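re the bet — no i am not wrong, look at it urself. input seq straight from the record:
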Amino acid sequence: MFTALVVTRLIFDFLLAKNLLKSLPMLHIIKGTNLRFLSFAKPAFIASWLLIAVGIGYGIFVRGNNMLGIEFAGGDELQLRFSQRVDTEKVREAISKAGLGETRIQYQTEGAGASRREYLSITAAKDAGLKAEDALKKAFPESKFERVRMDSVGATIGKEIQKSGVIASMLSLFGILVYVAFRYEFSFAVAAVVAVAHDVLMTIGWYCLTGLAGEGRQFNATFVAALLTIIGFSINDTIVIFDRIREDLKMGVGGSFTSLIDRALNQTLSRTIITSGTVFLATGSLYVFGGGAINDFAFTFLVGILTGTYSSIYIASALVVWWHKGKRPVMGTVVPAGGVAGVGESPAGAEA
């Protein structure tokens, strides 16, 4: 963050001071589009919430407690001593092949000097500790794994994570509501919050639906962190579009409010593709090449990138139009050059 904000600024200042930077053209992947995004708003809006209902319903009524990971449901904590160290990813792969679901794996060191010993600590689902031990003994006989202890881990930590995650999400949504209402107006704020809530619920729904391809992913602390990241990404994309809508409103661009928003969406389309595309590629690399610990985060964020981009168009922008019933909000009732308001619009001050 320091590099992005400070060093980048210093580089630009240097280039300008030396007169090495004459212009700064922006990259436009797509130019001159005139897509009617909002003509598909209603079916897209309905389909979104139906998919959310199906996904979350599948998680609640079909998968049930199987949706909860170790942090939420508790499990077995196993500590093993060994004679030959095995790479963490190989341990994870052996346990995964045994069909034991989510596990937390880490090496721990106790003591110092001559009495220093290293142990392998594994936290697995309830009643899966002994199975994990057997799987490792069969997969790595040369390591001579030997159990030191096995304890049952309760779900107290899970309750704290749930509480913290819910509080963090509510506070962030409230902050978004206040910020957007202050910067734009209340209808924009409500639309932004609904869009972010849509992204969170859609991601949860897709997470639940992973059960259709097997055992499926489970809720854990990493998933909560990914959801909070999605909130930040989603509101950023929405704000960019809202900025363009506000600019066009203040400039008094002609046409209906719906066509004005379609125009703003087309103008920001190239930026949206570049931003979402680069983030998607980076997160996709984490998903493909990252280890098991980062895989849940990467998968969740990939879904969030897609839903966040989609909701900025078909949830947030559509809700603003429906809120005002197709009429321009107060800040948009500016008479364009020539003294004639846009088609279907009123002159300045005529609408409340």
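see?? The first helix runs from residue 2 to 17. told u. also The domain at 75-153 is CATH 3.30.70.2040 (Alpha-Beta Plaits). so pay up
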